[in-house]
TrEMBL record:
Gene Ontology terms: cellular component: cytoplasm
Organism listed in the record: Callithrix jacchus
Membrane-crossing segments per the record: none
The protein, known as: Translin associated factor X interacting protein 1
Bias type Polar residues, positions: 1-23
């Protein structure tokens, strides 16, 4: 009996623990309905399917034998047949409840399927509406295109109608003029008819009809002439104002124009000053950033200063020669000197140079294929050879290019067979020794980095300065006072600033403690050592010339107000040159322009010609070409008017 009660209890618990679908409410009345009522469909308009879940505890029947219905202690147990009959009834009751719940489960499945069908129907309806909206959008776009075409058509019709109206108006004017002419002819005929009628009845006026007719004719002619003059005066002077008003308005206009010109000039000056200040500001910022980057790089990679005395035992000539080479040079220059010494040693070890071939990029004097003998001259021999080449170049008419002259000079000097060997030997030497003044200048002219006029003009300037000092030396002692020295420098270089004159005097041997009466051996300023190196005074002259050229080109760039990658036209460059240097003559300007645009002076268009606008060049290229030639300031720049 106990086993039967435990089995019934477990069965009842299992029935209570079965999962119930959420969203469905069950009660006792619902379970009592028959199957036809349970299969009834939910209303069509019901949208919400989620209902609060309720427990099924009220659907469970009480099971005898549980804790609440246990018999009391001491009661006599029921009979065996009575207990089995009661458990069977409980099981039958539970099975009926299970069958009722299975019908509810089937109904839930049906409701779920109906909801899914509704969702699919709603999605299909939405897709249908979207397709309809897309079709409507396409129709509207087509309608807009059609309206646009109609508008264009109407605009063309309006243009055509305006044209027809203008033609009709011209036709109307011609008809009006023809009508006036016809009326004038009719009036003339009427007047003639009246004259004839008057001539036939002389008694009316009491005078001679011929005389009256003639007088009338003359009067009419005068009237016609007067009318024509009046019409002419109206046509010519209909819009004329009185002279007094005209003069008043003209004076007012002139005053306003002067004020406008003054304001424009002031604005242009302020704009230029602003641009210059902005450029200075930007350049200052760039310099600041560059210095900061260099400082960080130096701080990161800085190393102790090298001990240059270690080179004394390596350089040929020992400590004495190294002291002579290192005197007055910084670390960078000492590195160049050391590299030159190493390179000269390697150059002496070479017996042959490989030929560079016959390419277009190869200079004409180096075009050779094969091995070329190294003549192995010393540095002094190369310098003397270059000096002789310059002397011969200055003595001739300079009809051929400098590279061709150099090769011809070597042919005349060493013969056709050894000319190419000497060309390679000299080229390798001057390319190596950058610190030597003669070699570096000859290399720059030979490779086209400088025009030979730069070297020639500088030599002429030095010679002219020596001549002025010699003329001032009345006793021919080779001595000048510091006052004479300063006066000659200022007269020879009137465009140099006081600071530049001071630098030249200090390079010549002047000190702040020197007096004007101190004597100076001026001839020693122009001497050269055995390697062609000039004295510091001549080197300072050359350095100032290069700085002045760079400053002149920088002023030209600022005047053009363009970036380096932009193009500049011929008239713009001509105007900028005349603006920064008004003393330039036409020939010098044409020389600069010819160099900048790489055009012969004979092919340059005249000033004001329309062809000038078609000649353009990139600004950076033009400035690099001007850097090659001898370009310098001719006169002082006009001071800008104060704002």
């Amino acid at each position: 009996m106990a086993s039967q009660q435990s089995w019934c209890h477990s069965f009842s618990s299992a029935s209570r623990l079965q999962p119930q679908p959420s969203g469905v409410t069950m009660d006792d009345s619902f379970l009592t309905k028959d199957k036809s009522t349970q299969k009834h469909k939910l209303p069509q308009k019901r949208r919400t399917l989620e209902l609060p879940a309720t427990p099924l505890s009220h659907c469970q029947a009480p099971v005898p034998g549980e804790a609440g219905n246990l018999p009391t202690q001491g009661a006599p147990p029921a009979g065996r047949g009575h207990g089995f009959h009661r458990g069977t009834e409980v099981a039958a009751h539970q099975r009926e409840k299970i069958r009722a719940l299975e019908a509810l489960k089937a109904k839930l499945v049906i409701v779920n399927e109906e909801c899914n069908e509704r969702i699919l129907a709603m999605r299909a309806e939405e897709r249908h509406e979207i397709s309809l909206l897309k079709k409507e959008k396409m129709n509207l776009l087509k309608f807009i295109d059609k309206k646009n075409e109609e508008m264009i058509s109407l605009q063309s019709q309006v243009t055509k109608l305006r044209k027809n109206l203008a033609e009709e108006y011209l036709h109307y004017l011609s008809e009006r003029d023809a009508r006036k002419i016809l009326i004038a002819d009719l009036n003339k005929l009427r007047y003639q008819q009246e004259d004839m009628s008057l001539a036939q009845s002389p008694g009316i006026w009491g005078e001679d009809p011929v005389k009256l007719t003639l007088a009338l004719k003359m009067t009419r002619q005068d009237l016609t002439r007067t009318q024509m003059e009046l019409n002419t005066m109206k046509a010519n002077f209909g819009d004329v104002v009185p002279r007094r008003d005209f003069e008043t308005q003209e004076k007012t206009n002139k005053d306003l124009q002067e004020q406008l010109d003054s304001l424009r000039a002031s604005y242009e000056e302020v704009r230029k000053e602003h641009e210059i200040l902005m450029q200075l500001h930007m350049s200052t910022l760039k310099e600041r950033d560059q210095f900061y980057s260099e400082l960080q790089e130096i701080q990161r990679t800085s190393t102790p200063r090298p001990d240059w005395s270690k080179c004394e035992d390596v350089v040929a000539g020992g400590p004495e020669r190294w002291k002579m080479l290192a005197e007055g040079k910084n670390s960078d220059q000492l590195v160049d000197v050391l590299l030159e010494e190493i390179g000269s040693g390697l150059l002496r070890e070479k017996d042959f140079f490989p030929g560079l071939g016959y390419g277009e990029a190869i200079p004409a004097f180096l075009r050779f294929d094969g091995l070329v003998e190294n003549k192995k001259p010393n540095k002094k021999d190369v310098i003397n050879l270059l000096k002789d080449a310059w002397k011969e170049r200055l003595a001739e008419e300079q009809k051929e290019t400098f590279p061709d002259f150099f090769f011809n000079f070597l042919e005349h000097r060493f013969g056709p067979n050894d000319a190419i060997a000497w060309a390679y030997t000299v080229f390798e030497n001057i390319k190596l020794f950058h610190s030597n003044e003669v070699m570096s200048q000859f290399y720059a002219v030979l490779m086209g980095k400088w025009s030979e006029n730069v070297y020639i003009t500088q030599k002429e300037t030095v010679a002219q300065l020596l001549k002025e000092m010699t003329n001032a030396d009345s006793k021919n002692e080779g001595l000048l006072t510091m006052e004479q020295f300063s006066t000659i420098l200022k007269s020879t270089f009137p465009l140099k600033t006081e600071e530049q004159i001071q630098e030249l005097m200090e390079a010549g041997g002047w000190y702040p403690s020197s007096s004007n009466a101190d004597l100076l051996n001026y001839r020693s300023l122009f001497m050269e050592d055995e390697e062609g190196q000039s004295e510091p005074f001549v080197q300072k002259l050359w350095k100032q010339y290069m700085n002045e050229k760079a400053e002149y080109l920088q002023q030209l760039k600022q005047e053009l107000c363009k970036e380096l990658h932009e193009v500049v036209t011929l008239p713009k460059l001509r105007g900028a040159l005349m603006s920064i240097d008004p003393s330039l003559d036409k020939q010098t300007v044409n020389t600069y322009i010819s160099q900048a645009f790489q055009l012969p002076e004979s092919q340059l268009p005249e000033e004001g010609d329309e062809k000038e606008e078609g000649i353009v060049e990139i600004l950076q290229t033009a400035l690099e070409r001007l850097q090659v030639i001898d370009i310098r300031r001719v006169g002082p720049r006009e001071p800008e008017p104060a704002s």
